[in-house]
Amino acid sequence: VAEIEVVLRGLDAVLPHGRAPVDIGIGGGRIRAIAEPGMLGGADVVDAAGLIALPGGLDLHVHIATFFGGTTTRDDFFSGTAAALQGGTTTIAQFAIPRPGETSLEAIDRTRIEAATLAAADVVVHGAVVKETFVESLARLAELPGVGVGTVKIFSAYTDVIGLTLGQIHRLLETAAAAGITVFVHAETDDLIREGIDGAVERGELGPVGHALSRTPLAEADAIRTISRLADDVGATVYFVHVSAAESTHVLAGLRASGEHVYAETCPHYLFLDAAVYAGAAGQRWICSPPIRSAEHREALWSAVRSGVIDTVSSDHNCFDTAQKDPGRGDFRAVPNGLPGIEHRLPLLIGAAIDGDLEWVRLAEISSAAPARILGLWPRKGALAVGSDADIALIDPAGRTDLGSSNMPTDFLAYAPRAVSGRVHSVYRRGELVVRDGELLAQPGSGALVPVEAKPQAQRVTVH
Ligand SMILES: [Zn+2]
Fold it and tell me: Which residues does residue 30 pair with via DSSP β-bridges, in sequence order?
């Protein structure tokens, strides 16, 4: 038994099977013991009475320092991951989206170097395959697990710049299945999106509300239905990112019922906001794709999150600011898509748990355990369990979090001026205290690159 260096005493811990009052012993970066209160001692004891312990967040969908929509997000791997830590998230998964001329492997190399130099949280790298270098990237797709990448993202929309045709997607799914790679899909049927945008242009509806109307729930549900059918044909495992519409949750529930291997994600902005944001004076700032929809869609997403039809809640963090968003107010086609959110994802979900809208174990599942399972990293990541990495977020349930301020390098905060119940009190990343009372203690480059292995097809994970 490795030595216990630190004891967190008197916690209310969210363990995989339920909440319990415990002491947690940490040593060598891992959780070494979980015991009844008062049973661990002899080490550096931290009084954590009154605090709730969650497994450190694992944000499966972020775009740090990303060039997209003709501009680059304002963060870098240090500021982005520092904000993640301050929001209780200890591991992020970044999409290595090829820049013009780059193949998937080249984008992965670049991303790994940037992350290793600057990241303060642990980092998983997802691959991505885009239109321009599709042939070259597909030819070497099977090499990704060899460099620690077990997932790859594709886009069914944006076919003018990065998206793939259905035929290309089918071929890629087949290669991915053989290589044990899980395929992350941005699912919106491009022809239907085109039709929506053309219609908005004809009617002169080019403001933020026009953006929301141009990308229909039908386009998303149709793409999920079609691409899951292609995946089933070749035995691929797919993960639908940022699901936003009620229709999609119905399609996903049907796929689950018929035993298909699909995962689904939604994001905080679809759970905590609604389409009213687009009608305001600065509606362009909330432009993202798919768009934020009406309250009926929001309620359907909540029910899918609670029931398990949706597996994960990830930020889809894009750290744009008002100088990047506002010039496109009169033409949504000129607005870079995406919202900053890496720091506020977990506090929003914690607020929902404290307010009684979300079970604590389900919260740990959607924000940390399920992402870790999907990557094949559970229980090393995503669990408060003996032997797991000591990634722990300590929450003060009596505190409040002001969503009108943040450590993200932007002047646009999607949830301002709201405040939510609960506060991230302190954070341990692999046993190291990295946030104490809102103060960042982690150094640039102290985050680790976490490699992901290929998943044998026969052992595809069944969602519970
Ligand atoms: Zn995204």
Answer: 27, 389
Q: Residue 47: which of 78, 19, 6 has the closest Cα? A: 6
- For 414, phi then psi, to 5°, come to -65, -25
Q: Which residues pair with 33 in a beta bridge?
A: 25
For the stretch 252-272, pLDDT in tens is 999 999 988 899 999 999 999
The rounded distance, in Å, linking the Cα atoms of 11 and 188 is 44
419 C-alpha to center of ligand 1: Å?
Answer: 25
The dihedrals phi and psi of 345, each to the nearest 5 degrees, come to: -55, -60
Cis, peptide link before residue 451, omega less than 30° from 0? no
> Averaged over 58-70, what is the pLDDT?
93
Spatial separation of the C-alpha atoms in residues 290 and 186, rounded to whole Å: 9
Token pair in block for residue 270: 């679809």
H helix or E strand, kind and range, residue 420: strand 419-429
Tens of pLDDT, residue by residue over 31-52, are 999 999 999 987 899 999 999 9
Q: What distance in angstroms lies between residue 200's CA and the mean position of ligand 1's atoms? A: 24
pTM above 0.90, yes or no: yes
- Contact criterion met (CB below 8 Å) for 264 and 253: no
**Sheet of 57-63, strands arranged across:** 312-313, 262-266, 238-240, 182-186, 151-155, 122-128, 89-95, 57-63, 317-318
Distance 173 CA to ligand 1 centre (A): 19
Instruction: Report the separation in Å between the CA atom of 86 and the middle of ligand 1, taken as the mean of its atom positions.
Output: 21
